Amino acid sequence: MSEARAAFRELIAVLQEVDARYLGDEWSAGAFGDLHDGFRSVMHILEGGCFLMFESDPEHPIFRPIVTRTRKMLGDNPDALYYSAPVRDDLAYRVTGTTGNSPYFSFTVETNTAEGGYSNATAGVLRHVDFDVAADGTFEVFFGGHERERNWMALPRGASEVIVRCYFEEAEPAGRDPNAFARIPLVIENLAVPPPPAPRSEASVAAGIRRVTNFVRGRTLEQAKPGERQQPSWVSTTPNDFPQPETPGDMAFSAFDAAYSMAPYALAPDEALVITGRWPDCAFGNVSLWNRYLQTYDYEYRNAGRNRANTDLEPDGSFRIVIAHEDPGVPNWLDTERRPFGMVFWRFFLPEGDIAQPKAAVVKLTDVKG
Questions:
Q1: Is the pLDDT confidence value at 13 over 60?
Q2: Pairwise CA distance, residues 252 & 109, whole Å
């Protein structure tokens, strides 16, 4: 049997195991009536693995969009663009591009993802406030190699991926723009200037398939089952009750300098969740709705999130956001898509001072209709 065929059958076997276990009772996939979300999530993960990992090459890296309007995973965001490029800790790289007037722009380094695995940890961050950005938004930064005084970040042992986060506070979600990724042109160059990659071979195709297999496995079968993992203090398991926002430390695929708060919502057909609070002083702040598989709700045609620019404020500067199954005719409605259960996720980047804990109350929909 050829090596590529063997690798392909390994991928098929993992998908069969995902079907039997991850999308079965072992992970409580059918417990909330949203099994279709599980299958959709796996399809998006499979697409992500093929797109990001099949021809990943840290000697000849390119930046690829991690998520889009139709590829949702790992807690995507309607107000953000995310990119990924493979790197290797024994090489040095130059990255050029523009911030696209993003109020928060950063590079983070992840570990253990070279063969498609799930990151061990976020091992470093370089933000727009840490490197020189020209008046037109252009920049040049370096990763790995000899230490530089400015515009540089080390690649620690095990570094395998550079992730770029670009957040926008605008009236329309940045992710809704069909040309959104054209706003952030990025180029990454291996400073060693390697020769062209070798022609594709049996071995290289098999290796690519196995990276895809690892990508799928790491985001499904290797994830904790419901109730197994100790949740961070900023994650609530109590519906409609938000914890005090906190920074996540070095948790994989997170940002060091963002304060997060997450809680599930649970609403009957005739109920609404009214959330009150104040946006803190920060570089970026927003709230998004996710399903159990960390996929945002439809933000192309519906209201699946709010940022500070598209939130109507009360006369005293506070906000009142309403999560409901239908439009109540009041400002700041978030559309549940008639899902009785989902996740509400808050992000506050580079916060200054205290962050007010969002307060929520379940009320009858008729009590909030305009």
A1: yes
A2: 10
